[in-house]
Specification:
Layout: H1 4-27, H2 36-40, H3 55-59
Length: 62
């Protein structure tokens, strides 16, 4: 039974920390756009920003 005197305050501190982290994330704009990053993965560009096609092919020279 004496364990509850340790576990309960630790649980309350962890829950309070989670609430503080959530409030910080909302106020700093971390949750503003949830859709764009998911769709960005499906785009044509590679991770370094270059496309599979060269500039000449896009211009119609290729």
């Amino acid at each position: 039974m004496s364990v509850i005197y340790i576990v309960l305050p630790v649980a309350l501190l962890l829950a309070g920390g989670a609430v503080v982290a959530f409030v910080w994330a909302v106020r700093s704009g971390q949750l503003d756009d949830l859709e764009t990053p998911a769709w960005r993965v499906l785009g044509d560009e590679e991770a370094d920003g270059r496309s599979d096609e060269s500039d000449a092919e896009r211009a119609g020279d290729g």
